[in-house]
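In this section we turn from sequence analysis to structure. A common task in structural bioinformatics is to predict how a protein folds when a small molecule is present, because the ligand can shape the pocket around it. The inputs are simple: the amino acid sequence and a SMILES string for the ligand, here nicotinamide-adenine-dinucleotide. Study the lines below before reading on.
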Amino acid sequence: MRVVVTGGAGFIGSNYVRRLLSGAYPAFAAAEVVVFDKFTYAGNRQNLDPVAEHPAFRLVVGDVCDDDALRRLLRADDIVVHFAAESHVDRSIDGSAEFVRTNVMGTGALLSAALHAQVRKVVHVSTDEVYGSIDEGSWPETHPLEPNSPYAASKASSDLLARAYHRTHGLPVCVTRCSNNYGPYQYPEKIIPLFVTNLLEGRKVPLYGDGLNRRDWLHVDDHCAGVQLVAEHGRPGAVYNIGGGAELTNRELTERLLAAVGADWSMVEHVPDRKGHDLRYAVDITRIATELGYAPKVSLEEGLAQTVRWYRENRAWWMAIRGAASRS
Ligand SMILES: NC(=O)c1ccc[n+]([C@@H]2O[C@H](COP(=O)([O-])OP(=O)(O)OC[C@H]3O[C@@H](n4cnc5c(N)ncnc54)[C@H](O)[C@@H]3O)[C@@H](O)[C@H]2O)c1
């Protein structure tokens, strides 16, 4: 069996690959694992260093928009886990072209190649941001898609393509929609690694607006465990929300990060709010919990402490990224 992981050099994809190859998912223990990644600014070979010498690991550098490369890559019976995407909301506000290209066109190309190759299953990894913003309660998978940022709109479009490939062609594709992730190896532009690395360098952290936006924070291991359950047992054509971490305002999150590195509110700089900033996201995880037995395992206390420790102990990893970003 082969598992093809697009975007496997990014934050979540590389976590999935490292866990897969370390035996965390026994049903796939014998699988060959092929990472297919373009290595954009967010892709990093170091994220795969722990598995680079594993005999079952293979790396293919390529673009999910490249039909020919995808056709050469995919084989009948492959399981494809599709993480590759442009993933940062702020970048999509600055310009949406790459988001439309990779997230929409790239997913379309991948689905088409998967159909041609007659793969066993595709898991399309999406986000809760496709639902929009919700003041109270939580979204079931049947909630209409009302994305507000160009990033979320591009992911919603890719979800609809996945649905269409299932309905039109019978492609065995599942969609997952997860809440905000955190953990080791996350590119330091997203709030948790940005704040932690700034604080470790003695720099201030930029808090958007009043800091009252609320998010469900899920450890990346729990997201990947949900993706794996869907890869193994998800019903073709079905959408599964993944979440159930801890809901916090950005202010509360900031307080926890300050405490974790021993800093105080003098290190917080209030900056104008993100345009169109969604107030709250919350997914209803009843479907994946009841159908597939999913339950998150990592508490926020334990997960944040582990994450902060990782950034403390892996300064070279993020200093290299910061150096490259300041030179570009
Ligand atoms: N980070 C989160 O909190 C979160 C939450 C829910 C869902 N998601 C989804 O999970 C997936 C992974 O997110 P992430 O945070 O790991 O992203 P990331 O930005 O860290 O990694 C994206 C990876 O995709 C690769 N990539 C980008 N464009 C490509 C292309 N055209 N062809 C091939 N590879 C390409 C990059 O090189 C990188 O390795 C995304 O689809 C994202 O929408 C993320």
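The mean pLDDT is 97. As an exercise, try to locate the residues that line the nicotinamide-adenine-dinucleotide site and compare them with your own expectations.
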